[in-house]
Amino acid sequence: MTDGSYEVHPIGRVESPLTDRAAAPRQGDEGAPDAWLVFREDVREGLRDLTEGAQVIVLTWFDRASRDALVVHPRGDLARPPQGVFSTRSPDRPNPIGLHRVTILRVDGLRVLVKDLEALDGTPIVDVKPVLDQDVAER
Amino acid sequence: MTDGSYEVHPIGRVESPLTDRAAAPRQGDEGAPDAWLVFREDVREGLRDLTEGAQVIVLTWFDRASRDALVVHPRGDLARPPQGVFSTRSPDRPNPIGLHRVTILRVDGLRVLVKDLEALDGTPIVDVKPVLDQDVAER
User: Fold this and answer.
1) Are B59 and B127 in contact (CB under 8 A)?
2) How far apart, in whole angstroms, are the C-alpha atoms of residue A125 and residue A93?
3) Structural domain includes residue A71
4) Is residue A19 part of a domain?
5) What are the chain B neighbours of A4 within 8 Å (beta carbons)?
6) Does the first or last residue of chain B, that is N or C, have fewer Cβ atoms within 10 Å of its Cβ?
7) What is the pTM of this model?
């Protein structure tokens, strides 16, 4: 098994009122604010079919996370028993990729406003994908 | 806006009967086979709470994809009009991260069997996350 590594090149950044990890909600449905996705000029063509009202999955890179964590206390709550990190959504994980399902509220060129995004201001964006039926239905 | 880049370190590889991208089903619900996720020894502790029957999201790195694509024909079908890549699930995209929702069928140490995984044999695995309610419900 060869392993190697791969380079992620951010395609944009999050603009959000969230600036403090300790104060951030732990999951989007617990009151995360709306946020702007601000994309790089060089990916403009890739954005052209994003529309208001669309449900998308945004992948981010938690650039302030620890990559050494394999066992964590869920939601950072020391009263809860530690769990293997791949059974949690902790930002601290070997490849700290965030997965956020959001609704697009507005599209303004390279700026896309989305609802309820739990990601700190400045967080790099690495991908955007449409939501498919198979993402939401148990099979 | 500083951009930089980040290094993804694979945590394992897919073992699948799928070896040919042209012959692979385009999405998991179109008949993808069961596949083994084979993890690296150094992430063993992170796997410890994965259980049979659990629904998880597997993130992969499409190591045979093109990273230059911004506009693609959906499913590679030239008869369909080209679309911005962030409105498609094409493996060809600036950061070729695959997102697969699957059910765990068996856990055997570092080897985890999952149902219906559309990923070629040898594809690097970069993360595993539990499915949350907010991933599957429109908000």
Assistant:
1) yes
2) 17
3) no
4) yes
5) 10, 124
6) N
7) 0.92
